[in-house]
Structure prediction request, 180 residues.
Amino acid sequence: MLKDFFTKAPKYARNEFMRSFAWELLYGDFDEDDEQCQRFQDFLEWRITKAQLNSTSVEKNSDLQYFSWIFASGELCEEWALHKLVDTLKLLGTVDDPGDSLLERFKELAQALPQQTLHCLELLAESDQRNHWFARYKSNDYRDIFQITLASEHQEVQKATQEFISRLIARNLGSYRDLL
Prediction:
């Protein structure tokens, strides 16, 4: 039934459904059930794949901007959700900013999944909204993430972090020189 809805419903209805769905995961009283989580993941997998196949318009797929809320909720499989966030960022260029929740989630995952976390940040830095994403008031959050990834036992993660920080500094998207 959801697939029919997303195939036929107007953009505002799809956006409202996805926003409500994402809000419930992020802020609501979600009762985690393995079967329900798998159904959510299956639906989201279908929705993102459908958007990738029909990527004619970012506007047509604007309901996916709320995937950042779903990711930030931490309710679904971490690695899967991070991978799908990358897919969504590649498709849309940016996502909706759920306050500090997205950066807080990146901080939580930076130790376990540093390369994927850095990749998401790199995609945000390439977006049209990079000045919003890397606004000065968020710099402490990024600093925390960078300190985690710079302390990684993997040299390739350390090197990727240093290169990313250098690119941010060169583009005037932060003051992180002391971390290098």
Summary: The first helix runs from residue 2 to 8. The chain is about 65% helix and 0% strand. The mean pLDDT is 89. The two ends are 52 Å apart (CA to CA).
